[in-house]
Amino acid sequence: MARNALIVTDMLSPYDFEDAEKVAASAERTIEPIHRLIERASEDGDIELIYVNDNYGDWDSSREELVANALEGERPDLVEPLLPPDGADFVLKARHTIFYGTPLEYLLWQREVENIVLVGQVTEQCILYSALDAYVRHYQVTVPRDCVAHIHDDLAQAACRMMERNMKADLTPARGSGG
């Protein structure tokens, strides 16, 4: 059986950056379906749960510090439901893709993952670039449309079309897949 990984991307955010209000407005609709996927992954031994989060340029940061900063930020209501459960893997990133300069590829190889489900923010940046990096590494990619937040709706729609067409990503909403 092919192993699956749910990768929660950049959802531990203080929402204190340019365009944060736009991202937060979009993220509001993603919280419930992402939360359900996290619960499912936590209960299912065949789904790896991995959080990959921007370190915001703080190379001395940790999972605990990122969580604390996000909970003390502008939108703790968007963070609290998605906190990493015990046992979830955690990877820090510094750029727009979950793979660049991170140990994620090795972790996925170690866990024999073949299929990744990308959720988080933002669709037209980190999600798009991460989907491309996953595709070129021969992973099957799923990006549930209702589990990704964006800044610009038109760019997010274009990014989704690119992921679906060029990367053969499955963009079925989590609500539509029973998850």
Keywords, please?
179 residues, alpha/beta, Rossmann fold, 6 strands, 39% helix
Can you offer a commentary on this structure?
The protein has 179 residues and is of the alpha/beta class. The protein has one domain: Isochorismatase-like (Rossmann fold), CATH 3.40.50. It is built from seven helices and six strands. Strands 1, 2, 3, 4, 5 and 6 form a six-stranded parallel beta sheet that branches. Strand 4, helix 6 and strand 5 form a beta-alpha-beta unit. Helix 6 runs parallel beside helix 7. It is globular. The protein starts with a strand and ends in a 13-residue tail after the last helix.
How many strands appear in the DSSP assignment?
6
Distance between termini? 19 Å
The radius of gyration computed from the alpha-carbon positions, rounded to a whole number of angstroms, is 15 Å
Number of structural units classed as domains: 1
Low-confidence runs (pLDDT<50, min 5 residues)? none
The 3D shape can be described as globular
CATH C-level category? Alpha Beta
Q: Fraction of residues in helices?
A: 25-40%
- Share of β-strand residues: 15-25%
- The whole-number mean of residue pLDDT values reads 95
At CATH level 2, the architecture is 3-Layer(aba) Sandwich
Helix run count: 7
Task: Characterize this entry briefly.
With about 180 residues, this protein is α/β, with parallel strands linked by helices.
